Fold Histone deacetylase superfamily.
Amino acid sequence: METGIIYTPLFQNHENYPECPDRVKVTAQYLIKNDIKMFTEPRVFDESWIQQVHTPEYINNIITTGSVDYSDIHYEHALKSAFGCLTAGEMLIQDEAQNAFVLNRPPGHHTYADRGGGFCYLNNAAILARYLQMHGMEKIMIIDWDAHHGNGTESIFYDDPSVLYTSIHQSPLYPGTGEIQDTGVGQGEGYTINIPVPPGTGHNSYMKIFSEIILPAGKQFHPDAVVISAGQDSHKKDPLSSLCLCSGSYYTMTRQILTSITPNVIGVLEGGYNLASLPVSVHAIVTALQKKEYTGGIEKVNEPDGIMQIIKSVKSTHPNWW
Ligand SMILES: [Zn+2]
């Protein structure tokens, strides 16, 4: 198996509009329609993997109250989503797959060690990163292209130089974090790279950000694996952001990560709320992971000025990476 795709209909069991069950249901259907039919079910793991990232108090709070501060959840549903990510990690470690995509929900990147937020309960990407590290992949790069800043993921690795956290996100937008000058602390100083972009930013600007920041930093960091916090709410049709990517943008970014940083790539679903564009965008990512040609093309848009200024500011804030 070349590309592992981790999915179960059980990912539909948790209701939380607009982070709704149909997101993964219609995406799975679209993949099947496009001859991607081999799904791997999430396996069962020891729950101690969750404790590598989250405090016992927070875990206990979800279990006993079935709730964090904004909406209800059955702990098993959050656990299933995280186990989907660990399954992808296990497949990579055991050479069952060259790379993988996890079509899971609920998402995770807004979850801190001790609190959830923004439809997120357990930080799937962070739990996966720790799992990979405990299996010999010492350096992990997280590339978060969700429209919203991954405040939880940033916080979990803020003082940790073994995980390079990078995020391209719309600003201003929920959760209001992710400033350029937020670069990490202590040993982790310089290992958080935030790239806030204005509403209207699209494919061309993301390509510049990739060639000027993400790819050079990735090459220098030389990670053992990349985890993509793949939130396709940065698509131009998404109702939760004003960014302007197209499905071909996700194909191109995934391909560039594979060819320029490392072949060891796991994509983890974060946001993406337009039920028409999300399936096409996920299919584009999977197509890149499978090293197939993508025929969807690129839809160019008129973009706001100033992206070179943002890139310059990020580079001068992080002099050690170039
Ligand atoms: Zn998002």
